[in-house]
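Technical note accompanying the year-one report. For the benefit of new consortium partners, we illustrate the data format agreed upon in the data management plan: each record pairs a sequence with a structure-token string. No post-processing was applied to the example shown here.
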Amino acid sequence: MSLLPVLSAVEIAADRVLLRKARATDRDGLIELQTDPQVWTHIAAPRTREDAEQRLDRIGGPANTTATPGHFIVADKITDTMLGTFEIKRRPADWPGHVVDGGGELELGYLMRRETWGAGLAFEAATAALQATAAELPDQPVLIVTRTANKRSLDLAARLRFETVSTFEWFDTDQTLLLASLHSFKA
């Protein structure tokens, strides 16, 4: 794992969402995200409820899901209801899909509860997090890697002005590698 810095903020506010660290009250939402077959359509097989509960218990509860810098719960800004998860992390060098020799580029990832789809909340969360990251870190590449069949993620990446760099196979399916410059998000 790279020792390069990632976003240090623990909370980021946008118009309708708040990116924050997880709380015990997020447990049911986290389990729902891990077990919803539609959420996992373009990722992998969803976990069983029992497996999702055991995983949360093994890592020490919901708070540890966002203990790593750059990992957040996406919450409704007014009700504080957990809407999804969001991360800006370093892409491991031993994973495929890089634009820099040695890897370690920033990578954006998210999972949103199904009832939030189509409302622009993932876009709002991504924009706020990328702006906060651009204000904190030097300019560098930011990646999104998604299954090529995941049209929703490709549309979000395009809306965020990420450009397709290449495609490759990973986990027995076609993946698309998208790229943006971090400082293109400076506010």
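Partners are asked to follow this layout when depositing records. The chain has a mean pLDDT of 91.
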